[in-house]
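agent> step 3/5: call structure_predict on target 'GNAT family N-acetyltransferase' (Azonexus hydrophilus).
agent> reason: downstream docking stage needs a structural representation; sequence fetched in step 2, passing through unchanged.
tool.input:
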Amino acid sequence: MNLPQRMLAAGWEKLAKGHPDAFSDVSFTWKRGPVRMAITAETLGVHNGTVHTYVACGGELTLYRVFVDEPARGQGYAKKALTELFAFADAMGLEFYVEPLPFKMETGGSTPLSRQDLQRLYASLGFLPDDAGCKVMRRPAVTVA
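tool.output (status=ok):
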């Protein structure tokens, strides 16, 4: 099974690009319950202090965004969803990139996690700094027998 098939089998819905809950600036938005994740077939790298996206060569993906609906925040939904995503990735030998930037979707909503909080969260899920300033973090492919 590939990653989209695993996501669908686990109850995730792949939102069409025009869907009101889809992130308009990425290819794939996945939703289950109060969690939405955007995943792209790209890698990230830092050049002259700026984060750039690059076309992936296969086996590399970028976790572009994770968003939890306001009433469900602080209850562990994001970490649970990410743990599941990376279990799928490990079973398939996929590598993930992330730029740990706070994202606030709605005005008047709660304050998102800080960059440092996001770095700690992603580090707890196996991500390592990919550059000296930790602008990009990489979760190496893991082979699970």
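agent> step 4/5: record observation. The chain has one domain: 3-139.
agent> proceeding.
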